[in-house]
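Exam revision sheet. Question 4 asks you to relate a sequence to its structure. Input first:
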Amino acid sequence: MPELTKLGKYQIRRELGKGAMGIVYEGFDPLIERIVAIKTIRPEQLEPSQAAEILARFKREAQAAGRLNHPNIVAIYEYGEDAGGAPESRISYIAMEFIKGRELRNFFDGNQKFPLKEIERIMGEILDALRHAHEHGVTHRDIKPANVILLDDGRVKVADFGIARIETSELTQAGTILGTPSYMSPEQFLGQPVDGRSDIFSCGVILYQFLTGEKPFTGAVTTIMHKVLKEEPLPPSMLNATLPHTWDAVIKKAIAKNPADRYQTATEFSKAIKAAFASQAAESTVINLAGDATTVNEPALVERTVPNARVDATAAAAPPPRVPAAASAPAVALSASSRTRSNLAVLAGVAGAGVIAAGVVAYMFLPGRDPSVTETAPVAQNSPIVPAAVDRSAAASKPPTPPAPVEASVEPGTMVISALGLVDPKDPKFNGDQAAAQAEARADAKRQLVEKA
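Answer key, structure tokens:
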């Protein structure tokens, strides 16, 4: 077969990719001097029993995306058919916007972590694109990381409306199952009519991956189908200890089994994500570097993970002692020799059996511990300590003694389970982001606790 050099008015420059049903080319429109991507299908390469349906779906992609005009949706310029130099080799093609970027799937497959602010932005752009599509009567039906393109400048493009449902179209019949299993809504698995809330379910699955690095529904197709229809996935905060429970509620509503229980519009879902991010930003962990100490201020974490910590009544009544500046806040103090040798993030998690009852969570940067180096344990932020009696004559020459840590009490009969999360902060997937490494260590320890409990 001769090499293809032209389709309609478009000059063919090179092949960009090839699939089972056709080829994607880089083309050039000489009339307006614009580079385009040209997706093609050759009917003679299709199974005769499927050719009519596939061609109709291909044309519907042009109709669906062609009626949309949004900066976060890949633009469709033209649908056409061309003999391609041989009458018996008719080619159907779509000329569309040529973009340079990477599929979100590639980032997920590489276990790349995204800051929460970036997650909020990306999800916001995806949902705004879907808002526009839904308002124009188009349901995508195959929202997944492979159809979300991140451009070189960071912007989002939603692509591939090939199985989209158009409200005025009769091409999609009830009982037809189309989509990608891990991201399909319950109504898609059941072959029921779908609307924009099915796309919201799929976006909820993507958000779950952003927050945890895991898909909520995994396994063989039949296993995924059962989980989507019958089971609830683990809350994100169980897999990522840095997340507040606000995100659990957002995910739960987005991937509800019943469409009526989900966010009813893409805009509503987007607002919920922004609210959850704002809530976490207000309560976020603050990490400060001061002198030779690393100060970790985590009041929310202490309150949640040390529910049984107790303070003696006499201690509560006494005023706190004056302490050196390096120990004036609840802190984990590491010596200079320990910090300079640290290249491995460690998370220690402690939890109770049955229910993760009581524990203390701390993190340290530590490759090879030196037994001679001592560390002070974190102290509950609002827990006053009884000051030791000090002779006034000796006080002028002797610095005050640092406060003793408050130990968490464990009820009799409680079994304590511990887990240690390990990561290498120098791993390229973290891009030098220590916060991402810390979050991964926490998540690793949390997963181990869930398995042991």
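Marking note for examiners. The mean pLDDT is 73.
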